[in-house]
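Hey team,

Sharing the FMN dependent NADH:quinone oxidoreductase run so nobody has to redo it. Sequence (207 residues) first:
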Amino acid sequence: MTTLLQIDSSITGPNSVSRTLTTAIVEKLREANPGLRVIHHDLAAAAPAHVTPANFPSAHPISAAAGDAPEFAAGRAASDAILDEFLGADIVVIGAPMYNFSIPSQLKAWIDRILVPGKTFSYGAEGLKGLAAGKRVIIAVTRGNFYGPGQPTASFEHVETYLRSVFAFVGIPNPEVIIAEGVQLGPDARQTALDKALQQTAGLNAA
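Structure output:
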């Protein structure tokens, strides 16, 4: 059975463009695979705690250095569950709105659980090796203004660039990225951005 992990991080609920896009992406993939198993996490409703030595995944060197105090058990178990879900997923769909030029802090806390030496990457004689290769990652990026190449604000963009770096680091160098931008420039601009992004969603390879 194919497993899809859907991660939403927008704090704007039903008004969220990124949630509209992740929903459309999942529906598109479900049409092609009715037996698709979907695990959905709303990070705005239930965000992982910011990382500390007490709640890093058990396999992380920071956890080993901090020891195994009983009060660390619950936090580490929750982090291990996040990491295991990511490792077990065949497809990962992420909604990533731009907040103040970067990703929501809730999404950053989730990412901090999946970047674990020996689990999703390693260093060796040949340098960095990503250990999570083979997954399909689809990211719905939403931006209030225009930050694409050639725009005066292009250097302010730290959502798509950051997430591409994260997934390349763990062995997934070519995530599929759907972008809706200019969504805060008025109702017409928002609808135009959403329509274009939904067209991209409709054109996704369903396999």
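The chain has one domain: 3-202.

Ping me if you want the raw files.
A.
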